[in-house]
């Protein structure tokens, strides 16, 4: 039982390998197995969900209307006691800017999801005349360049791209970024500010060619100066002639929209032009 150099080095190598397996690889295997189990459960839950039939895009008999809803009820769950949206009657003319306002949780985002076909109507009729482009309330980005996040698979049109960047107030931001619009952003855009992520998310929706644009509160993540620039330069000027639905809490812009829809507890409380409302209606 003598100790020799070859035995010492062999045993040291053996215990190093054993330590590597037990201290690093085994805990990693347990972590990955746990994450895989959670992922499988989520996939099973998703696959067991009821099929969602997309909203059919069909032409209206009245040419000047882009969206029409008649006596629409909708709920996110079949066994819900109360409807998320109840008795919705709404007509949006082609080429108009419509603002959807109301307190938090009143159903503004659900109304947008209804138009997208993500929320299915249990009663009534929803007719959309034209293709749609949507900017979500929560901005999301994928790993890649800023330009690719805006194009999102669409063909690159330099003139249109520059106009969209200018309309979405991104020119100064591109100057500040290390490589301009070719700067790589991490998953969810962690290297960018909240306002920059929101405007890139908005630019993606605006760059896509469509007849109807749906914006879910894009002004909430930007300051007053940038918000004014977006409203005037993007919603009013660049998208002029397109049908636009803007969910917002910024009542100072309502004077400049064509139609206002006020929601409260999933019901349209009032709609019309700004002159049809009283100042206390927006408090």
Automatic annotation (TrEMBL):
Keywords assigned by UniProt, alphabetized: ATP-binding, Membrane, Nucleotide-binding, Repeat, Transmembrane, Transmembrane helix, Transport
Q: Which GO terms describe its molecular function?
A: ATP binding; ATP hydrolysis activity; ATPase-coupled transmembrane transporter activity
SMART domains in the record: AAA (SM00382)
Q: Which organism is it from?
A: Bracon brevicornis
**Which residue intervals define the domain ABC transporter in the entry?**
67-283
Xref: InterPro entries: AAA+_ATPase, ABC_transporter-like_ATP-bd, ABC_transporter-like_CS, ABC_transporter_C-like, P-loop_NTPase
Query: What GO cellular-component annotations does this UniProt entry give?
Result: membrane
**Keyword ATP-binding assigned:** yes
What is the top-level taxon of the source organism? Answer: Eukaryota
Name of this chain's protein: ABC transporter domain-containing protein
């Amino acid at each position: 039982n003598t100790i020799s150099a070859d035995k010492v080095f062999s045993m040291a190598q053996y215990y190093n390998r054993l330590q590597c397996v037990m201290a690093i690889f085994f805990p990693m295997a347990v972590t990955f197995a746990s994450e895989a189990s959670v992922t499988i459960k989520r996939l099973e839950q998703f696959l067991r969900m009821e099929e969602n039939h997309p909203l059919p895009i069909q032409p209206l008999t009245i040419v000047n209307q882009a969206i029409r809803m008649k006596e629409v009820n909708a709920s996110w769950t079949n066994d819900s006691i109360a409807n998320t949206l109840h008795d919705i009657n709404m007509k949006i003319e082609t080429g108009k800017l419509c603002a959807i306002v109301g307190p938090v949780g009143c159903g503004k985002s659900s109304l947008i999801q209804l138009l997208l076909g993500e929320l299915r109507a249990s009663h009534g009729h929803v007719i959309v005349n034209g293709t749609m482009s949507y900017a979500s309330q929560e901005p999301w980005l994928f790993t890649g360049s800023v330009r690719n996040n805006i194009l999102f698979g669409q063909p690159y049109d330099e003139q249109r791209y520059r106009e969209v960047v200018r309309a979405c107030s991104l020119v100064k931001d591109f100057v500040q970024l290390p490589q301009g619009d070719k700067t790589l952003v991490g998953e969810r855009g962690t290297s960018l500010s909240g306002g920059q992520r929101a405007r890139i998310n908005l630019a993606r929706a605006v760059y896509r060619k469509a007849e109807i644009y749906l914006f879910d509160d894009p002004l909430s993540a930007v300051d007053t100066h940038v918000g004014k620039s977006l409203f005037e330069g993007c919603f009013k000027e660049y998208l002029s002639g397109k049908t636009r639905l803007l969910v917002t809490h910024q009542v100072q812009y309502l004077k400049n929209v064509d139609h206002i829809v006020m929601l409260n507890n999933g019901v349209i409380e009032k709609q019309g032009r700004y002159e049809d409302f009283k100042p206390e209606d927006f408090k």
